[in-house]
Amino acid sequence: MEITSKLVNDTLLATVEASRIDSAVTVQFKETMRQIASTKSARVVLDLSRVTFLDSSGLGAVVGVMKFLGPERKLEVAGLTINVAKVFSLTRMDTVFRIHNSALDALAASEGTA
């Protein structure tokens, strides 16, 4: 699974380049995110703007990344498409994650978070 990343100030922005995060790619997703997250940063923003399908396995993988980061580093999500936003809402994960409309919004919000 291709995930691009860049460090902007103290925010690590990871962009999923695939259209699906499902059971077929969850192991690869978690491994790639663990490698990317080894870059030190105060927070990690996961840009899901290209993801149009996320199943329960995919959501579990996103939660796994959050747990991997631990309480000292926050995982935030950005750019949820309609279907992915529904999954977050139906599972109440929208109350667990800070959700931004876009990666640019998340980066702009970095000034107010630490």
UniProtKB/TrEMBL annotation:
Signal peptide: none annotated. It comes from the Bacteria. Gene3D superfamilies: STAS domain. Residues 21-110 form the STAS domain. GO terms for molecular function: anti-sigma factor antagonist activity. Pfam families: STAS. This is STAS domain-containing protein. It comes from Halocynthiibacter halioticoli.
